[in-house]
Amino acid sequence: MAVITSCCVWQTGHSLQTSHLFFQTMTPDDTKPVNFTVKAPVYLQIGDTKADTAHSGVCVVDVNLPFGKPVNIEEVTFKNYYTAYVTVRLLRRNPEQEAPAKWCTALRDLPLMDNPHTERGSQDYYTIHRTQMQVEPDHVVCVRLILRQPSLAWLTFSLEDIKIFPHTEPDPEKEVSDWLSDLTLIDQHPDLEGLPDPQTVSSSIQQMWALTEVMQTNQTTASIGRFDVSETHSQPHLSCNECVHDGGDVMKFGR
């Protein structure tokens, strides 16, 4: 895999500073990038002669994927080198048709720097995922990166450490296996220290249940007599008109 390297120089001669902002990729850990070749960057120049050093601020980088092996792209990662904007174009081939491959724009003018005239974002790592693209990046045979830098503060701009990761369909069985492996096994013998003996607790519950059954069986169904309040004396007292014996017979009392 070829990698583009370039040098960037301040016109004022100031030293460069490296930023350390990283973007986490979304590809699985075991996914390897696709092998490809990168053509030399082509800077669009202003003027009729090749000796003219004035640049238009536009650079084109073509990434050729393996011949005869179209790739379904999951994501593209790279390190920025003073590029302000990037446009991604894809050369796709329809496997169901014999028509020639066609170019399409997957992403247009993605900003890589907060301000083209300042350092912020000039040397950061970036990831372009397939969900960010306007078209499905499938059956791709070539990726064209169009770089723009409108600021005259930088003499050179490019992209480094370009990587293209293939898209793979997830394996349902593997996902379930990974999910099960992450589960924590429950201890089959929990700590019972400080808890009462289960047999003793069970015996006590059975005795309480038996006592409840006996009380429900012996519960009387006789009615209880009425109590009247007498106010004939200075102090009121209760008179029992009817009293109930233990056997259930009713006895009446009079004054």
From TrEMBL:
InterPro entries: Nicolin-1 (IPR040235). GO terms for cellular component: nucleoplasm. This is Nicolin 1. It comes from Oreochromis niloticus (Nile tilapia). The gene is nicn1.
